[in-house]
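User: Okay, second chain of the day. Same drill as before: sequence in, structure tokens out.
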Amino acid sequence: MSIASKFLAELQQESANTKAILAVVPFDKADFKPHEKSMSLKSLATHIAEISGWWKECLLQDELDFSKDMGSRKEYHSTEDIVAWHDELVAKATVILNNAKDEDFAKPWTMRNGETIYFTLPKESVVRTWCLNHLYHHRGQLTVYLRLLNVPVPGMYGPTADSSGM
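Assistant: Same drill. Structure tokens below.
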């Protein structure tokens, strides 16, 4: 089994879980923050959706340089729009992974800000950390936001306290 096919299987499973959590984000509470230092609900949901598109930056490119213009951040104003964007990014990630070769994952990738290098790692480690683990971290945060807003939390790995029978 190729490296890409393993990541693709995980992406497919986890993108369904991500979509389920994004689908219940109440955009009428977009400015909600559980703490003054926290991201707003809208910012967190947008960040979670955009992580699904990072496969391009992490696998097709050799570095991310914060000193370069990365364009403006997309703005979304509804749950439907952010879910559609997530689906679009997952479709693009699927194409990238379907075309990836094992040797692509061994290539070095660098995160930098101009001359300041934060790290250089093999792309396999970068996609694991930044395209997947980073996503899971923020999805967990989002479940806390939803709980605090009394929004039923969907199950991702089985039932939740909001599922029937719990």
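The longest helix spans residues 123-148.

User: Thanks, on to the next one.
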